[in-house]
Specification:
alpha/beta, three-stranded mixed beta sheet, 8 strands, globular
C-alpha cells in the first residue's frame, strides 16, 4: 500500500516538460507566435509578450483580470519549464473585432500588465502564497496546472489571482 501511495505521489510530481520559452509556449498551446499572442521581445534578459484575446464589449475589470492571469502564466510557465533565471512578462491585449465573416486582431497599446521577477523570488512567492515547495508542484504529469496553482489563477479562489499577482510585483497600467 505504501508503495502504491509513493508511486502516485511521484507520478503526480513528475519532472515537467523542459525547453526554450518558444518551445514551451508552443507545446502548451495556449499562446502562439503564429497568431500574435506570443512574442519574445528579448532573449537576454528574457522578456516575453503574451496577449489574451479580448473583445470591445468586455468590461475593463474583465480585461484587467485577463492581463493579470496572463502575466502570472508567463512567469510560472517560464520557471516551471525553462532554466531561465529571470523573466520580464508584458501582458498586452489583442483586440478581436468581427468584420462580416472576417476576424481582425489589433494589438492594443494599453492597458498593460508587466512584471520582472527572478526565479528565486517567484519560488518564494509560490511557497508562501500557493503552499508548494517547488515549481514542479504547480503542474501535474501532463503539464496541466495543479489545483494549488489554480487557486492563484482565479479571483474567486483563495489566495486568488490579485494576491498572487501583487506578491509577484505585477504592475497594471491603463
Amino acid at each position: 500500500m505504501a508503495l502504491l501511495v509513493a508511486a502516485c505521489v511521484s507520478a503526480a510530481y513528475a519532472e515537467p516538460y523542459k525547453g526554450t520559452i518558444e518551445q514551451v509556449i508552443e507545446e502548451m498551446g495556449d499562446y502562439s507566435a503564429s497568431n500574435n499572442t506570443f512574442q519574445v521581445l528579448s532573449k537576454t534578459p528574457l522578456h516575453i509578450r503574451l496577449s489574451p484575446k479580448v473583445v470591445a464589449a468586455e468590461s475593463p475589470e474583465s480585461v484587467k483580470t485577463a492581463l493579470l492571469r496572463v502575466a502570472t502564466y508567463g512567469v510560472y510557465r517560464t520557471f516551471v519549464h525553462t532554466t531561465a533565471d529571470s523573466v520580464q512578462v508584458t501582458a498586452q491585449p489583442l483586440l478581436m473585432s468581427v468584420n462580416g465573416e472576417r476576424r481582425e486582431f489589433v494589438l492594443l497599446k494599453k492597458p498593460l500588465a508587466t512584471v520582472s521577477v527572478t526565479r528565486a523570488k517567484a519560488l518564494e512567492v509560490a511557497k508562501e502564497t500557493l503552499q508548494v515547495t517547488s515549481f514542479s508542484h504547480l503542474v501535474d504529469s501532463h503539464n496541466v496546472w495543479t489545483d494549488k496553482m489554480e487557486k492563484g489563477r482565479y479571483v474567486n479562489r483563495k489566495p486568488g489571482l490579485h494576491k498572487l499577482a501583487a506578491e509577484l510585483g505585477v504592475i497594471f497600467s491603463q
